[in-house]
Design brief:
alpha+beta, Alpha-D-Glucose-1,6-Bisphosphate, Chain A, domain 4, 8-stranded mixed β-sheet, 8 strands
Length: 287
């Protein structure tokens, strides 16, 4: 088991980020679904629970989904593993600003594989040491990785960096934010941080550590790409109401049902990823 805490810095307000994330997830989902691949929504409903985060009474949206990912897996995975290994099961609990997602593969790996992502969104500069209030044992195991959307070293230079979603050149008309500079998080306000504690577990003799590192190796790219897009789309979602967002989500959910059946496979292919590039972010898509 390998545990890392990713801290993604953004020039946004926490209360606005929720709308931006909901809208951006819907948009990004369109890019990743088609030709039998993508997300299948099985269940979506409100929840109240003391068990999702022990010691906290949470309420929000529970979602259960399947991700059909065969064409998005590395070629070696497609060659060596059966099709059942390419379908991932996701349960998520969105009680913003706290969120939790559990990803498993019951058709093949069963109890030998899971990824747990716990997220807290905070109006700070990423220096809080334990915003999720985890145990001392986890604190000793975790590795902290700070991610800045200005940096592009983790991205695929050919496919991930685009003029319209590059924070180094983008300037918001509605908010005046951007372009970002290398030291933007120290010279710009507002600044917020998405704290994401990711636990990866893959039990296979001889390759457990390698695969768990492989899983974590995909996250910097996935998180930076999504949040660069979220920021650079700010003028499209900044003034929307929650009613507007929910309408957009429902329209997108209907489009996804059509795309997964009839469209062509497209989107971000995982030549260096073991997981769907948007599985954790899609916990917010409302049917």
């Amino acid at each position: 088991m390998i545990i890392k805490e990713y801290r993604i810095l953004l020039p946004l307000e926490v209360e606005k980020y929720q709308n931006g994330q909901l809208w951006s997830v819907a948009e990004a989902s369109k890019q990743e679904t088609g030709g039998g691949e993508g997300v299948e929504i099985l269940q979506q409903e409100t929840f109240t629970s003391f068990e999702v985060r022990p010691g906290h009474n949470l309420s929000g949206i529970y979602a259960h989904k399947l991700y059909h990912l065969k064409s998005k897996m590395p070629w070696i995975v497609r060659k060596l593993l059966p099709d059942s290994a390419m379908i991932l099961d996701e349960e998520s609990w969105n009680a913003y600003p706290y969120c939790k997602t559990i990803l498993t593969n019951p058709g093949y790996m069963k109890k030998d594989f899971y990824i747990i992502v716990e997220t807290m969104h905070v109006q700070d500069d990423g220096t809080s040491e334990n915003v999720l209030n985890v145990s001392n044992d986890i604190l000793q195991q975790r590795e902290v990785v700070v991610l800045d959307i200005y940096q592009d070293g983790h991205l695929n230079k050919k496919t991930d960096i685009k003029p319209d979603t590059n924070p180094r050149t983008f300037k918001s008309i509605k908010t005046g934010r951007g372009p970002l500079t290398v030291d933007w998080s120290k010279t710009t306000k507002p600044v917020m941080c998405c704290y994401k504690l990711v636990t990866a577990y893959f039990r296979r003799t001889g390759c457990q550590g390698k695969i768990e590192n492989f899983i974590h190796g995909s996250y910097p790219r996935l998180f930076i790409k999504f949040h660069r897009e979220l920021f650079c789309w700010i003028d499209k979602w900044y003034d929307l109401t929650m009613e507007d967002i929910r309408k957009h989500e429902k329209e997108t959910a209907e489009n996804l049902r059509k795309q997964i059946k009839n469209g062509k496979s497209h989107g971000m292919y995982a030549d260096s990823c073991f997981i769907n590039p948007l599985f954790e972010e899609k916990e917010y898509l409302i049917d």
